[in-house]
């Protein structure tokens, strides 16, 4: 399983990229709004840092508007992946992007049927939101398992991005459940790195080393 970083904060992207773990970036309108910066400028900065798919989400609700927005994003770089909501209009837009060889990420996927439809429309990626399903007492991870099994049975090459990842356990479970990618907020990556026994181990090694040299 690969990692994308789920943020529009360029500094977080730079830090994670320096660790060599980032294969792509996902943004969404809420994450972009949080930064309060010009979206195209933010995209340009991200594209200069990360060599991998960078999802830019459209805000139009009709296919025509989605395609217009997406084509503008796609002009920026071949790594641009147009993020489209899982609606009938979104599927129409995905079909058009696929015909033009433009990558798409179908977002706000909450059922296996939605994922299957998105894949058949030509989506490069589907993004099941596991955290938001957990929030309403449904098992987000079961959805990842179902989509993974369906895509395997039917030899579908659309990649599954485990999205709405809230904590490190989600990441391990997504990897075990067949997600190709987990898109993680920077805070989750930080928590994945940490282990108290690692910290204690370093402390003890340094203390022993210090004793030997005192
Ligand atoms: C994915 O592409 C979305 O940007 C993101 O994972 C949504 O996460 P949230 O449910 O924590 O907002």
Automatic annotation (TrEMBL):
In which domain of life is the source organism classified?
Bacteria
One GO cellular component from the entry?
cytoplasm
Pathway it acts in?
Carbohydrate degradation; pentose phosphate pathway; D-glyceraldehyde 3-phosphate and beta-D-fructose 6-phosphate from D-ribose 5-phosphate and D-xylulose 5-phosphate (non-oxidative stage): step 2/3
Keywords, A to Z?
Answer: Cytoplasm, Pentose shunt, Schiff base, Transferase
- Organism of provenance: Effusibacillus dendaii
Q: Which gene encodes it?
A: tal1
Compartments where found: Cytoplasm
Q: What class of enzyme is it?
A: transferase
Keyword Mitochondrion on this protein?
A: no
Role, per record: Transaldolase is important for the balance of metabolites in the pentose-phosphate pathway.
Please list the GO biological process terms of this entry: carbohydrate metabolic process; pentose-phosphate shunt
Q: What is this protein called?
A: Probable transaldolase
Q: Name one Pfam family in it.
A: TAL_FSA
Q: What NCBIfam families does the entry give?
A: fsa_talC_mipB
